[in-house]
Amino acid sequence: MEFSKLTNVPLDSIDSADTRYLVTTDADTGDKRPDLTDSIRQMSLLAPPLLVESDGRFIIVSGFRRIAACRSLEYDTIDAFVKKSVITKADELDFECVKAAIADNSLQRSLNLIEMSRAFCMIDSFVSDIKALSHIAGILGLPVGYGIIKKIKKIASMPLLIQDAILTGNISLPVAILLESYQEIAKIAFIRLFISIKFSLNKQREILTLVKEIGRRESIDETEILLRGKVQQITETLDLDANKKGQKIREYLKQRRYPALQKAQKIYEDNVNRLNLADNVRLSPPAHFEGNVFALNLSFQDPEQLKACFLDLFFYLVCGNGNFRKKSVCAAFARTSEYSVFFNKLIG
Length: 348
Description:
Layout: E1 6-10, E2 14-15, H1 37-43, E3 50-54, E4 57-62, H2 64-72, E5 77-84, H3 95-106, H4 113-124, H5 130-139, H6 146-153, H7 160-167, H8 173-179, H9 184-196, H10 201-218, H11 222-227, H12 230-235, H13 242-257, H14 259-275, E6 281-284, E7 295-298, H15 303-318, H16 324-334, H17 337-347
Helix pairs in contact: 8-10, 10-13, 13-14, 15-16
């Protein structure tokens, strides 16, 4: 890498503001790593930083956190590996320094998505195509799949709010990519919603899709749906926990997007509730209520439970109108030998 032997460098000659080679995410973006100050105080600086010298100043290639810790300990100088600069323009990158900066991080620990994105973008300025980028990435301990490289690269150009949400786990990479198609205000509204209510990945995708489709169907902006109506009211309701808020928001968006389907669902649920089915009997409607074939599922552990299930169904079919006289007739039949014969034949 053409870095020299250890050189004693004055701390005040190191430009910490120049972050062109920075890979590590800052602590205040949610990336929780232990403070190095106590370690360096006790053990001194065991891993010297990598620096590149340019016009009498030193640019950090790797070791931003180590140098910050040394500053807080009021060191005057530190030992570092130094490389002579070959660049002539401000903010220009040296490929050897780029590889050193990435390797010093990726070969010691797993990089988060933000750090990978920064690394891919730095390498990308020196390669001609995705194949070459993948090759260098593999050498430096980064993912090599073309598809994942293209997705991760996008993160570095995303708004900091989205990057922070990825870093803190409030949204995933697939959701972040979906958010790119929304207006800036809508992105912020979605992020705030997903931070306040911890939806799963599939539910976040569902909400993004529902809001976009409602906007198209009603010819309104997504922010109108998120910030000036029922969604905002539910979010601000103090006597609901996050799970209940999330459930109500999803129900409201589905009802608004599919009013006819939701009406059919409500009628179906009311009818099923009137049947008062046992817990081990489940009735399922046709998908999207398209068709007239229903499914009946019985759960049982032994023949006696199955017998009880059939008896309940017999009540529903024969006495479904609530006629208690008919129910007493059904109960009497269940005690007869004919029912036992019928049941025994049924279960073999």
